[in-house]
Write a structure and sequence with these properties.
Aspartate Aminotransferase, domain 2, Aspartate Aminotransferase, domain 1, four-stranded mixed β-sheet, 15 helices, seven-stranded mixed β-sheet, 2 domains
Length: 392
C-alpha cells in the first residue's frame, strides 16, 4: 500500500488547489431536464446540442442493427471488423462533408492522435492554436515534428510563425478546432486557408463541436464559411450533436487510404459497434431533413446569452451553443457550480488544466430541446447566484 502514497499525496495537493473532480451521475437520458442526486435539474452541461441522444429514430435504428449484426464488431477494421454499417456510414459522411471519402474512429481523441502521428513526423512543422483540444495537443507532442503554437485566433501571429519558419520542412500543417470547446468561439478559417495557400501548408480542422451545428446544412466550419471542399483534413465526432459515439475523418481518397494503411489508432482498435454506426446514419438524416432543430438551437443560444449579458456576467463572446461565464478563481467557480445545482441548474465548473490558470469558468451549453421555461429557470438561478457571490 505504501506504493500508493504518492498518489494520495498528489490527490491532497489537487484538493488544496481547489482542482479536485468528482463524477456526478445522471439518471436517465441526456434530456433538457435530468435527475442528479435525487433532484430534477435543467441540464446545461451536455454536448447533446440537437437533442438526438434520446431521439426515438436513433433508438429504433440501434435495435434493428443489434438484431441484424449483433452487439460488437469483434475485431479491428483491418482484420474482420469492417461490417456493412461501417462502410455505409463512411460513404454517408463523405457525402455530408463534401469529400471523396471518410474513415471511422473509436473516439475524437483517438482520431486526432492517429491523424497527427500518421501525417506528420520528424522534419515536419505543425502550427497549432493555443486553445486547441487536449487531443490535438497530445497528438502534436507525439509526432516528433517541430510544433509552434500561435496565440488564440491571432492570424498575425500565425503568419509570423509561418514566415519565420523558412527551413525546408517536408510538410507544414496548420491545425485548429473549428469551434473551441471551452470558449465557444469559431476559428477564422478563411484567413487560415489564405495563409496556408500562401506558405504551402495543409489545413486540419477539428469539427467536433461544429458538426450538426454550424453551416446552413449543419456540415460544420467549412460550410459555415463557404469553404466546402477546401479543407484537406476534417475530423468530427458522432457523440455530440449527432447524439451517439465515435468519430470520423473526411478528406481525399488518398488521405483515407493512407490512414487505413498507416494509422495505428485505426489499425489496432476494435471497430465501432454496428449499432453505433446505424444510429449515426439516422442522425445525419435528421440533421439534413429537420433544419428546424438547428434553428431552435440558435434561438435558445441567443435567448440565453442575451439574458446573461443583460445581467453583466463576464460571458465570453461565444458564437456557438457553448456559453462560458468567466470567474477566474477555482474555489469561487465551484461554489457557483454548487449553488446553481442547489437551485436546479447543472452548469459545470471548468478549471485548469482544462482551461488556462486564472480563467476558471462556468461552461453552459444549450440544446434544441430546452424550452423557454427551462431557460428562464436557468437565468433566474444565474441571477440569484451571481448576486450572492458578487459576480454581477
Amino acid at each position: 500500500m505504501d506504493d500508493l502514497a504518492f498518489f494520495s499525496a498528489a490527490l491532497e495537493e489537487i484538493k488544496d488547489r481547489d482542482l479536485y473532480r468528482r463524477l456526478r451521475i445522471i439518471h436517465g437520458a441526456q434530456s433538457a431536464r435530468v435527475q442528479v442526486e435525487g433532484k430534477e435539474v435543467v441540464l446545461l452541461s451536455s454536448n447533446n446540442y440537437l437533442g438526438l441522444a434520446e431521439h426515438p429514430a436513433l433508438k429504433e435504428a440501434a435495435i434493428r442493427a443489434l438484431e441484424l449484426y449483433g452487439s460488437g464488431a469483434g475485431a479491428s477494421r483491418s482484420i474482420s471488423g469492417t461490417m456493412e454499417p461501417h462502410k455505409e456510414l463512411e460513404e454517408r459522411i463523405a457525402r455530408f462533408k463534401g469529400c471523396e471519402a471518410a474513415l471511422l474512429f473509436s473516439s475524437g481523441y483517438m482520431a486526432n492522435l492517429g491523424l497527427l502521428t500518421t501525417l506528420v513526423g520528424g522534419g515536419d512543422l505543425i502550427v497549432s492554436d493555443e486553445f486547441n483540444h487536449a487531443s490535438i495537443v497530445d497528438g502534436c507532442r507525439l509526432t516528433r515534428a517541430e510544433v509552434q503554437v500561435y496565440r488564440h485566433r491571432d492570424m498575425n501571429h500565425l503568419e509570423a510563425l509561418l514566415k519565420t519558419k523558412t527551413s525546408s520542412y517536408r510538410n507544414r500543417l496548420i491545425v485548429t478546432d473549428g469551434v473551441f470547446s471551452m470558449d465557444g468561439d469559431i476559428t477564422p478559417l478563411p484567413e487560415i486557408r489564405e495563409l496556408a495557400d500562401r506558405y504551402g501548408a495543409l489545413v486540419m480542422v477539428d469539427d467536433a463541436h461544429a458538426t450538426g451545428v454550424l453551416g446552413k446544412g449543419g456540415r460544420g466550419t467549412a460550410e459555415y464559411f463557404g469553404l466546402m471542399g477546401q479543407v484537406e483534413i476534417q475530423m468530427g465526432t458522432l457523440g455530440k450533436a449527432l447524439g451517439g459515439f465515435g468519430a470520423y475523418v473526411a478528406g481525399s481518397r488518398v488521405l483515407i487510404d493512407y490512414l487505413i494503411n498507416r494509422c495505428r489508432t485505426f489499425m489496432y482498435t476494435t471497430a465501432l459497434p454496428p449499432a453505433v454506426a446505424a444510429m449515426a446514419m439516422v442522425a445525419l438524416d435528421i440533421v439534413e431533413k429537420e433544419p428546424q432543430r438547428r434553428e431552435r438551437l440558435w434561438e435558445n443560444i441567443h435567448y440565453f446569452r442575451n439574458d446573461l449579458k443583460a445581467m453583466s456576467f463576464n460571458a465570453v463572446g461565444s458564437d456557438s451553443p457553448i456559453v462560458p461565464i468567466l470567474i477566474g478563481d477555482n474555489a469561487l467557480t465551484m461554489e457557483a457550480d454548487h449553488r446553481l445545482m442547489e437551485k436546479g441548474v447543472f452548469a459545470q465548473g471548468i478549471r485548469p488544466p482544462t482551461v488556462p490558470p486564472q480563467s476558471s469558468r462556468l461552461r453552459a451549453t444549450l440544446m434544441a430541446t430546452h424550452t423557454k421555461e427551462d431557460l428562464d429557470r436557468a437565468v433566474r438561478a444565474f441571477r440569484e447566484v451571481g448576486k450572492e457571490l458578487g459576480l454581477i
